[in-house]
Amino acid sequence: MAQSRCKECGALAGPLDWRCGECGGSLDLVNLPAFDPSAIDSGDFSLWRYRAMLPVERRFSLGEGLTPLVSAELDGIHFYAKLEYLNPTGSFKDRGTTTVLNHLAAHGATEVIDNSSGNAGASLAAYASSAGMSATVFVPAATAVESKKRLIRSFGGAIIESHDYLAEVYAAAEETTYASHAWSPYFVLGQQTAAWETWEQLGRRAPAAVATPVGHGGLFLGFYRGFKALYAAGFIERVPRMIAVQSAGVDPVVRGWETQSESPPQIEPGSSVADGILVDTPVRGEQILRALYDTEGFALRVEDPAIEAAQQRMQARGFMIEATSAVTAAALTRIRERIGDEAELVIAFTGSGLKNLGSSAAPV
Asked: Coil, strand or helix: which one is 12?
Protein backbone atom coordinates (compact mmCIF):
# COMPACT_ATOMS: atom_id res chain seq x y z
CA MET A 1 0.00 0.00 0.00
CA ALA A 2 1.42 3.38 -1.05
CA GLN A 3 2.30 5.79 1.76
CA SER A 4 3.90 9.22 2.08
CA ARG A 5 7.29 9.14 3.77
CA CYS A 6 9.74 11.94 4.62
CA LYS A 7 12.88 11.77 2.51
CA GLU A 8 14.87 13.38 5.34
CA CYS A 9 13.97 11.44 8.50
CA GLY A 10 11.90 8.56 7.14
CA ALA A 11 8.79 9.36 9.18
CA LEU A 12 5.44 8.37 7.69
CA ALA A 13 2.95 11.16 6.98
CA GLY A 14 -0.82 11.44 7.11
CA PRO A 15 -2.94 11.62 3.93
CA LEU A 16 -3.49 15.39 4.19
CA ASP A 17 0.08 16.26 5.19
CA TRP A 18 2.04 18.30 2.69
CA ARG A 19 5.39 18.03 4.46
CA CYS A 20 6.88 16.04 7.33
CA GLY A 21 5.43 16.93 10.71
CA GLU A 22 8.62 15.73 12.41
CA CYS A 23 11.37 17.61 10.57
CA GLY A 24 9.61 19.68 7.87
CA GLY A 25 11.15 17.69 5.01
CA SER A 26 9.46 16.93 1.71
CA LEU A 27 7.51 13.72 1.20
CA ASP A 28 7.78 10.94 -1.34
CA LEU A 29 5.50 7.99 -2.04
CA VAL A 30 6.77 4.53 -1.18
CA ASN A 31 5.41 1.06 -2.00
CA LEU A 32 4.06 2.18 -5.37
CA PRO A 33 2.70 -0.51 -7.72
CA ALA A 34 5.18 -1.85 -10.26
CA PHE A 35 4.62 -0.81 -13.87
CA ASP A 36 2.58 -3.46 -15.68
CA PRO A 37 1.80 -2.99 -19.40
CA SER A 38 -0.91 -5.63 -19.24
CA ALA A 39 -2.78 -3.41 -16.76
CA ILE A 40 -2.99 -0.43 -19.14
CA ASP A 41 -6.62 0.34 -20.01
CA SER A 42 -6.26 0.87 -23.75
CA GLY A 43 -9.86 2.07 -23.98
CA ASP A 44 -9.23 5.04 -21.68
CA PHE A 45 -7.89 8.04 -23.57
CA SER A 46 -6.57 9.93 -20.55
CA LEU A 47 -3.77 9.42 -18.07
CA TRP A 48 -6.15 7.23 -16.10
CA ARG A 49 -5.36 4.45 -18.56
CA TYR A 50 -2.54 3.83 -16.03
CA ARG A 51 -4.82 3.82 -12.99
CA ALA A 52 -3.54 0.37 -11.96
CA MET A 53 -0.17 2.06 -11.34
CA LEU A 54 -1.70 5.10 -9.63
CA PRO A 55 -2.70 4.49 -5.99
CA VAL A 56 -5.50 7.05 -6.24
CA GLU A 57 -9.21 6.48 -6.76
CA ARG A 58 -10.50 8.44 -9.75
CA ARG A 59 -13.53 10.41 -8.62
CA PHE A 60 -13.42 13.14 -11.27
CA SER A 61 -11.44 13.95 -14.39
CA LEU A 62 -11.34 16.54 -17.16
CA GLY A 63 -9.71 14.14 -19.63
CA GLU A 64 -6.14 15.10 -18.74
CA GLY A 65 -3.14 13.37 -20.26
CA LEU A 66 -2.55 11.35 -23.43
CA THR A 67 -1.19 14.51 -25.06
CA PRO A 68 0.25 14.23 -28.58
CA LEU A 69 3.89 13.42 -29.26
CA VAL A 70 4.69 14.99 -32.61
CA SER A 71 7.69 15.17 -34.89
CA ALA A 72 9.06 18.73 -35.04
CA GLU A 73 12.01 20.71 -36.36
CA LEU A 74 13.80 23.99 -35.66
CA ASP A 75 16.90 25.20 -37.50
CA GLY A 76 17.19 21.82 -39.17
CA ILE A 77 17.24 20.06 -35.80
CA HIS A 78 14.73 17.26 -35.38
CA PHE A 79 13.02 16.41 -32.10
CA TYR A 80 9.75 15.09 -30.73
CA ALA A 81 7.53 17.60 -28.96
CA LYS A 82 5.33 16.39 -26.12
CA LEU A 83 2.40 18.82 -26.31
CA GLU A 84 1.59 19.24 -22.64
CA TYR A 85 -0.06 22.58 -23.35
CA LEU A 86 -3.00 20.63 -24.80
CA ASN A 87 -4.07 19.45 -21.36
CA PRO A 88 -7.53 20.73 -20.29
CA THR A 89 -6.40 23.98 -18.62
CA GLY A 90 -3.50 24.57 -20.99
CA SER A 91 -0.55 23.18 -19.03
CA PHE A 92 1.17 20.04 -17.79
CA LYS A 93 0.04 20.93 -14.27
CA ASP A 94 -3.25 19.09 -14.88
CA ARG A 95 -1.47 15.72 -14.65
CA GLY A 96 -0.47 16.38 -11.07
CA THR A 97 -3.52 18.35 -10.03
CA THR A 98 -5.86 15.49 -10.90
CA THR A 99 -3.96 12.97 -8.77
CA VAL A 100 -3.53 15.44 -5.88
CA LEU A 101 -7.19 16.49 -5.72
CA ASN A 102 -8.59 13.01 -6.26
CA HIS A 103 -6.42 11.85 -3.37
CA LEU A 104 -7.43 14.76 -1.13
CA ALA A 105 -11.12 14.36 -1.98
CA ALA A 106 -10.96 10.73 -0.95
CA HIS A 107 -9.75 11.89 2.47
CA GLY A 108 -12.47 14.47 3.01
CA ALA A 109 -10.93 17.72 1.79
CA THR A 110 -13.53 20.29 0.70
CA GLU A 111 -11.39 23.44 0.57
CA VAL A 112 -7.90 23.68 -0.94
CA ILE A 113 -5.18 26.28 -1.37
CA ASP A 114 -1.96 26.59 -3.37
CA ASN A 115 0.56 29.24 -4.38
CA SER A 116 1.18 29.85 -8.06
CA SER A 117 2.29 32.38 -10.65
CA GLY A 118 -0.53 31.20 -12.91
CA ASN A 119 -0.68 27.74 -14.47
CA ALA A 120 -0.86 25.69 -11.28
CA GLY A 121 -3.46 28.06 -9.89
CA ALA A 122 -5.65 27.79 -12.97
CA SER A 123 -5.36 24.01 -12.86
CA LEU A 124 -6.23 23.90 -9.17
CA ALA A 125 -9.26 26.14 -9.64
CA ALA A 126 -10.59 24.07 -12.54
CA TYR A 127 -10.22 20.70 -10.87
CA ALA A 128 -11.50 21.96 -7.52
CA SER A 129 -14.59 23.25 -9.29
CA SER A 130 -15.05 19.88 -10.98
CA ALA A 131 -14.77 18.18 -7.58
CA GLY A 132 -17.12 20.55 -5.78
CA MET A 133 -14.30 22.02 -3.71
CA SER A 134 -13.47 25.66 -3.12
CA ALA A 135 -9.99 26.83 -4.16
CA THR A 136 -7.90 29.83 -3.17
CA VAL A 137 -4.65 30.66 -4.95
CA PHE A 138 -1.94 32.83 -3.40
CA VAL A 139 -0.15 34.64 -6.22
CA PRO A 140 3.04 36.74 -6.27
CA ALA A 141 2.16 40.39 -6.69
CA ALA A 142 5.29 41.14 -8.68
CA THR A 143 5.22 38.35 -11.28
CA ALA A 144 1.71 36.92 -11.71
CA VAL A 145 0.44 37.40 -15.26
CA GLU A 146 -2.89 39.22 -15.45
CA SER A 147 -4.36 36.90 -18.08
CA LYS A 148 -3.59 33.88 -15.90
CA LYS A 149 -5.23 35.52 -12.90
CA ARG A 150 -8.34 36.01 -15.02
CA LEU A 151 -8.22 32.34 -15.93
CA ILE A 152 -8.07 31.33 -12.26
CA ARG A 153 -11.12 33.45 -11.52
CA SER A 154 -12.98 32.13 -14.57
CA PHE A 155 -12.65 28.60 -13.18
CA GLY A 156 -14.13 29.80 -9.89
CA GLY A 157 -10.92 30.20 -7.91
CA ALA A 158 -10.34 33.00 -5.42
CA ILE A 159 -7.06 34.93 -5.51
CA ILE A 160 -4.97 36.43 -2.73
CA GLU A 161 -2.23 38.59 -4.22
CA SER A 162 0.75 39.40 -2.01
CA HIS A 163 4.42 40.34 -2.03
CA ASP A 164 4.90 37.76 0.76
CA TYR A 165 2.64 35.11 -0.71
CA LEU A 166 4.72 32.14 0.41
CA ALA A 167 4.58 33.13 4.07
CA GLU A 168 0.86 33.72 3.74
CA VAL A 169 0.11 30.37 2.09
CA TYR A 170 2.19 28.51 4.68
CA ALA A 171 0.26 30.25 7.44
CA ALA A 172 -3.06 29.42 5.76
CA ALA A 173 -1.94 25.79 5.42
CA GLU A 174 -2.18 25.45 9.20
CA GLU A 175 -5.97 25.56 8.84
CA THR A 176 -6.73 24.65 5.21
CA THR A 177 -5.67 21.72 3.03
CA TYR A 178 -2.57 22.72 1.07
CA ALA A 179 -2.79 21.11 -2.37
CA SER A 180 0.76 22.12 -3.23
CA HIS A 181 2.11 21.39 -6.70
CA ALA A 182 5.60 21.89 -5.27
CA TRP A 183 5.31 19.82 -2.09
CA SER A 184 2.70 17.11 -2.65
CA PRO A 185 4.15 13.73 -3.67
CA TYR A 186 0.87 13.04 -5.43
CA PHE A 187 1.65 15.83 -7.88
CA VAL A 188 4.85 14.14 -9.06
CA LEU A 189 2.95 10.85 -9.19
CA GLY A 190 0.61 12.23 -11.83
CA GLN A 191 3.53 13.58 -13.85
CA GLN A 192 5.00 10.09 -14.21
CA THR A 193 2.27 9.33 -16.71
CA ALA A 194 3.98 11.63 -19.25
CA ALA A 195 6.88 9.16 -19.39
CA TRP A 196 4.57 6.18 -19.79
CA GLU A 197 2.67 7.89 -22.60
CA THR A 198 5.94 8.77 -24.36
CA TRP A 199 7.04 5.15 -24.07
CA GLU A 200 3.80 3.97 -25.64
CA GLN A 201 3.84 6.65 -28.36
CA LEU A 202 7.39 5.73 -29.41
CA GLY A 203 6.40 2.10 -29.86
CA ARG A 204 7.14 0.99 -26.30
CA ARG A 205 10.68 2.30 -26.14
CA ALA A 206 12.44 5.21 -24.46
CA PRO A 207 14.07 8.18 -26.21
CA ALA A 208 17.75 8.89 -25.71
CA ALA A 209 17.05 12.16 -23.89
CA VAL A 210 14.22 14.24 -22.44
CA ALA A 211 14.37 18.02 -21.88
CA THR A 212 11.93 20.07 -19.82
CA PRO A 213 11.77 23.56 -18.37
CA VAL A 214 12.52 23.40 -14.65
CA GLY A 215 11.14 25.52 -11.83
CA HIS A 216 10.12 23.21 -9.00
CA GLY A 217 10.77 20.36 -11.43
CA GLY A 218 7.51 18.42 -11.14
CA LEU A 219 7.35 17.35 -14.78
CA PHE A 220 11.12 16.80 -14.93
CA LEU A 221 10.96 14.43 -11.95
CA GLY A 222 7.80 12.84 -13.30
CA PHE A 223 9.56 11.91 -16.54
CA TYR A 224 12.58 10.65 -14.60
CA ARG A 225 10.58 8.56 -12.13
CA GLY A 226 8.23 7.28 -14.82
CA PHE A 227 11.13 6.01 -16.90
CA LYS A 228 12.81 4.64 -13.76
CA ALA A 229 9.64 2.61 -13.15
CA LEU A 230 9.81 1.27 -16.70
CA TYR A 231 13.48 0.41 -16.22
CA ALA A 232 12.87 -1.30 -12.88
CA ALA A 233 10.13 -3.41 -14.49
CA GLY A 234 12.49 -4.40 -17.32
CA PHE A 235 10.76 -2.64 -20.21
CA ILE A 236 13.55 -0.25 -21.22
CA GLU A 237 17.32 -0.75 -21.31
CA ARG A 238 18.24 2.63 -19.85
CA VAL A 239 16.62 5.75 -18.44
CA PRO A 240 16.86 8.69 -20.89
CA ARG A 241 19.39 11.43 -20.22
CA MET A 242 17.49 14.10 -18.33
CA ILE A 243 18.03 17.72 -19.36
CA ALA A 244 16.92 20.65 -17.20
CA VAL A 245 16.56 24.06 -18.84
CA GLN A 246 16.15 27.28 -16.87
CA SER A 247 16.04 30.99 -17.51
CA ALA A 248 19.28 32.85 -16.90
CA GLY A 249 17.27 35.13 -14.61
CA VAL A 250 16.51 32.33 -12.12
CA ASP A 251 18.83 29.34 -12.47
CA PRO A 252 19.57 27.57 -9.15
CA VAL A 253 19.52 24.07 -10.68
CA VAL A 254 21.97 25.06 -13.41
CA ARG A 255 24.32 26.55 -10.83
CA GLY A 256 24.09 23.43 -8.71
CA TRP A 257 24.83 21.18 -11.67
CA GLU A 258 27.76 23.33 -12.81
CA THR A 259 29.43 22.91 -9.41
CA GLN A 260 28.30 19.25 -9.07
CA SER A 261 26.67 20.14 -5.78
CA GLU A 262 24.22 17.99 -3.84
CA SER A 263 21.64 20.78 -3.73
CA PRO A 264 21.04 24.03 -5.61
CA PRO A 265 22.59 27.14 -4.03
CA GLN A 266 20.56 29.90 -2.43
CA ILE A 267 20.07 32.67 -4.98
CA GLU A 268 18.34 36.01 -5.03
CA PRO A 269 14.91 36.20 -6.69
CA GLY A 270 15.16 37.27 -10.32
CA SER A 271 12.98 37.94 -13.33
CA SER A 272 12.40 36.49 -16.78
CA VAL A 273 9.84 36.31 -19.56
CA ALA A 274 9.60 32.63 -18.56
CA ASP A 275 7.30 33.46 -15.65
CA GLY A 276 6.34 29.84 -14.99
CA ILE A 277 9.81 28.83 -13.74
CA LEU A 278 10.72 31.77 -11.50
CA VAL A 279 11.61 29.47 -8.62
CA ASP A 280 14.72 30.47 -6.66
CA THR A 281 14.40 27.64 -4.10
CA PRO A 282 13.00 24.44 -5.68
CA VAL A 283 11.48 22.18 -3.04
CA ARG A 284 12.95 19.06 -4.65
CA GLY A 285 16.20 20.62 -5.82
CA GLU A 286 18.35 17.80 -4.47
CA GLN A 287 16.25 15.22 -6.28
CA ILE A 288 16.47 17.17 -9.56
CA LEU A 289 20.26 17.25 -9.36
CA ARG A 290 20.42 13.58 -8.41
CA ALA A 291 18.35 12.73 -11.51
CA LEU A 292 20.80 14.70 -13.66
CA TYR A 293 23.78 12.86 -12.22
CA ASP A 294 22.05 9.47 -12.35
CA THR A 295 21.29 9.75 -16.08
CA GLU A 296 24.43 11.58 -17.22
CA GLY A 297 22.16 14.52 -17.91
CA PHE A 298 22.89 18.22 -17.79
CA ALA A 299 21.39 21.63 -17.12
CA LEU A 300 21.39 24.71 -19.34
CA ARG A 301 20.36 28.35 -18.94
CA VAL A 302 18.95 30.54 -21.71
CA GLU A 303 18.59 34.32 -21.94
CA ASP A 304 15.28 36.14 -22.45
CA PRO A 305 15.95 37.24 -26.08
CA ALA A 306 16.62 33.62 -27.06
CA ILE A 307 13.47 32.47 -25.24
CA GLU A 308 11.31 35.07 -26.99
CA ALA A 309 12.81 34.26 -30.40
CA ALA A 310 12.25 30.53 -29.90
CA GLN A 311 8.67 31.12 -28.77
CA GLN A 312 7.83 33.16 -31.84
CA ARG A 313 9.50 30.71 -34.20
CA MET A 314 7.69 27.72 -32.72
CA GLN A 315 4.40 29.58 -32.82
CA ALA A 316 5.04 30.33 -36.50
CA ARG A 317 5.30 26.57 -36.97
CA GLY A 318 1.91 26.03 -35.33
CA PHE A 319 3.00 25.32 -31.75
CA MET A 320 1.15 27.86 -29.60
CA ILE A 321 3.50 27.75 -26.63
CA GLU A 322 4.10 30.25 -23.84
CA ALA A 323 7.53 31.66 -23.05
CA THR A 324 8.22 29.14 -20.30
CA SER A 325 7.68 26.30 -22.77
CA ALA A 326 10.11 27.91 -25.19
CA VAL A 327 13.17 27.61 -22.96
CA THR A 328 13.74 24.06 -24.22
CA ALA A 329 13.52 25.17 -27.86
CA ALA A 330 15.88 28.06 -27.10
CA ALA A 331 18.44 25.54 -25.86
CA LEU A 332 17.95 23.11 -28.74
CA THR A 333 21.23 23.74 -30.58
CA ARG A 334 23.27 23.34 -27.40
CA ILE A 335 21.36 20.20 -26.46
CA ARG A 336 22.15 18.65 -29.83
CA GLU A 337 25.83 19.56 -29.45
CA ARG A 338 25.91 17.47 -26.27
CA ILE A 339 23.80 14.46 -27.23
CA GLY A 340 24.66 14.17 -30.92
CA ASP A 341 22.64 14.50 -34.11
CA GLU A 342 21.19 10.99 -34.12
CA ALA A 343 20.01 10.74 -30.52
CA GLU A 344 16.24 10.63 -30.20
CA LEU A 345 15.17 13.70 -28.23
CA VAL A 346 11.84 14.54 -26.61
CA ILE A 347 11.19 18.05 -25.34
CA ALA A 348 8.17 19.11 -23.34
CA PHE A 349 6.08 22.11 -24.38
CA THR A 350 4.52 22.75 -21.02
CA GLY A 351 2.08 25.67 -21.25
CA SER A 352 -0.21 27.35 -23.77
CA GLY A 353 0.64 30.67 -25.36
CA LEU A 354 -3.08 31.36 -25.70
CA LYS A 355 -3.01 32.41 -22.05
CA ASN A 356 -0.83 35.39 -22.90
CA LEU A 357 -2.51 36.63 -26.06
CA GLY A 358 -3.75 40.16 -25.52
CA SER A 359 -1.58 40.68 -22.44
CA SER A 360 1.56 42.74 -22.10
CA ALA A 361 3.54 39.50 -21.96
CA ALA A 362 2.39 38.40 -25.42
CA PRO A 363 4.97 38.35 -28.22
CA VAL A 364 4.59 40.86 -31.01
From this structure: strand
